[in-house]
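Hi V.,

Quick status before I head out on leave. The structure for the redesign project is tokenized and pasted below; the design run finished overnight.
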């Protein structure tokens, strides 16, 4: 396929979720492909995102599992937690995955180039002092954590560093209201740190269903996480004993070992030479692309976090598949971003797909809501005061289910199945005709009969 005018048919910048998938799939279609990676194979998700985070969530949940076991007759005395064991076992697993990614790329015939890449012009890429040319270039450098600039902000860490902390903090202040902040507050608290979650508005997880946000707030309070809403940090100072002293906007102070900012992620476009190649950016720094991920420069494409549509791994993977089909199979696919199911690995988990009640009421005139809350069967014997919450958002005119939302154990696992039903356009009548699996929590999604 290579017309030999260029070194490669496709040069990919960034071996993350989107870049690896696009490289492998394009090579499988016969393209001569290179991928440059500056930091870690597999990108954010594998190294400092989804994977290590989920391992930490599992680790943090043992805290409650040991307590809950007592009601089932187990004696669990002398339980203790060793941070270096969890941290280093996690790192070993990540290194194993790095190796798997390397083999996947090599076996697909993709040339792997270690180093940071930058565009020199429309068809030329520089990595260190080497120059490569390519017919097409895919820019997939992901996003990076954003920390606002304020006095002492250099003392704050982000999720990147949280995965590698030298010592586990006794007290942590997590700042932010998105899913990463909420998940890390649960991780730190579960692993035994006194945890404060600070957010500048009155309730976290903006954009999620209101009932879900309130349910999670109540459950996190039960777990003794100090939720400090409507708060901002104006200053952080490092004290002589290494502690961080935080000054809140009202002038009061609080000390902590660690302050972690999870206040959003921005497209990772710095130093890529995009301006030089003439690639247009949106106001928020994201690369502008059309339906086929083509940038303002016809042979340069971009996808994943850097285009800032949905910052999720499965979205980057789907975009990569769509791009390869378009470029190498002549089958343009317009990505369907509706009904993308997501989970928040908070404690307890959130699972959600489709419209929130608030969104549905803005778009439909006859919205019918079904909801239920109950104690999970497991906790009848454990004695834990934790509630499960489930909600269906239905269009009363067409009977179509517009949204499914849940807070509770395994919410992410349960919601993945519901997402198929929503994608297929299932009505509430079909949910009602579906026979439940008993005894599960999930069966409640097909047994809700009375509108709220
Ligand atoms: C803490 C955290 C938890 C997350 N949890 C989830 C989750 O549970 N589920 C989910 O779906 N998503 C989750 N995400 C989001 C997910 O990780 C991203 O959406 C996904 O990784 C985006 O893929 P990408 O290919 O766009 O970028 P990335 O995976 O970030 O890959 C980009 C790669 O490009 C490299 N790179 C950057 N610039 C250059 C350059 N100039 N030259 C060479 N290489 C370069 C980077 O080193 C990186 O490896 C999480 C993210 C974070 C931070």
């Amino acid at each position: 396929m290579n017309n030999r005018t260029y070194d490669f048919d496709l040069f990919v910048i960034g071996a993350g979720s989107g870049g690896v998938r696009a490289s492998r799939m394009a090579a499988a279609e016969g393209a001569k492909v290179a991928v440059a990676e500056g930091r870690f194979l597999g990108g954010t998700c594998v190294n400092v995102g989804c994977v290590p985070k989920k391992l930490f969530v599992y680790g943090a949940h043992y805290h409650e599992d040991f307590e809950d076991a007592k009601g089932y007759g187990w004696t669990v005395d002398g339980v203790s937690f060793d941070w270096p064991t969890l941290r280093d076992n996690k790192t070993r697993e990540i290194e194993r995955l790095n190796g798997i990614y390397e083999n996947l790329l090599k076996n697909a015939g993709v040339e792997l180039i270690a180093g940071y890449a930058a565009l020199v012009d429309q068809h030329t890429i520089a990595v260190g002092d080497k120059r490569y040319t390519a017919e097409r270039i895919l820019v997939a450098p992901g996003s990076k954590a954003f920390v606002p600039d304020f006095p002492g902000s250099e003392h704050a860490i982000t999720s990147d560093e949280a995965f590698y902390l030298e010592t586990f903090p006794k007290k942590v202040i997590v700042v932010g209201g998105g899913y990463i902040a909420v998940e890390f507050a649960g991780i730190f608290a579960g692993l035994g740190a006194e945890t404060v979650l600070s957010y500048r508005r009155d309730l976290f997880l903006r954009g999620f269903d209101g009932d879900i946000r309130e349910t999670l707030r109540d459950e996190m309070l039960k777990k003794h996480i100090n939720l400090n809403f409507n708060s901002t940090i104006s200053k952080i100072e490092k004290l002589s004993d290494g502690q961080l002293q935080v000054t809140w906007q009202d002038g009061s102070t609080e000390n902590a070992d660690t302050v972690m900012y999870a206040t959003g992620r921005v497209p990772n476009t710095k130093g890529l030479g995009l301006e030089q190649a003439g690639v247009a950016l949106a106001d928020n720094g994201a690369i502008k692309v059309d339906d086929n991920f083509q940038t303002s420069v016809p042979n340069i494409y971009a996808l994943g976090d850097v285009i800032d549509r949905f910052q999720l791994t499965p979205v980057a993977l789907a975009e990569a598949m769509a791009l390869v089909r378009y470029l190498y199979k002549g089958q343009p696919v317009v990505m369907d971003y509706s009904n993308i199911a997501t989970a928040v690995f908070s404690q307890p988990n959130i699972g959600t797909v489709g419209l929130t009640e608030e969104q549905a009421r803005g778009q439909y005139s006859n919205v019918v809501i079904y909801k239920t809350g109950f104690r999970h069967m497991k906790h009848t014997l454990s004695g834990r005061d934790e509630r499960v919450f489930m909600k269906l958002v239905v269009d009363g005119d067409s009977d179509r289910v517009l949204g499914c939302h849940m807070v509770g154990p395994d919410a992410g696992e349960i919601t993945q199945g519901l997402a198929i039903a929503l994608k297929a356009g299932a009505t509430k009548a079909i949910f009602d005709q579906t026979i439940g699996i008993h005894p599960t929590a999930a069966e409640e999604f097909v047994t809700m009969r009375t509108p709220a």
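Above is the designed sequence. The CA atoms of residues 195 and 450 lie 39 Å apart.

G. will cover questions while I'm gone.

Best,
W.
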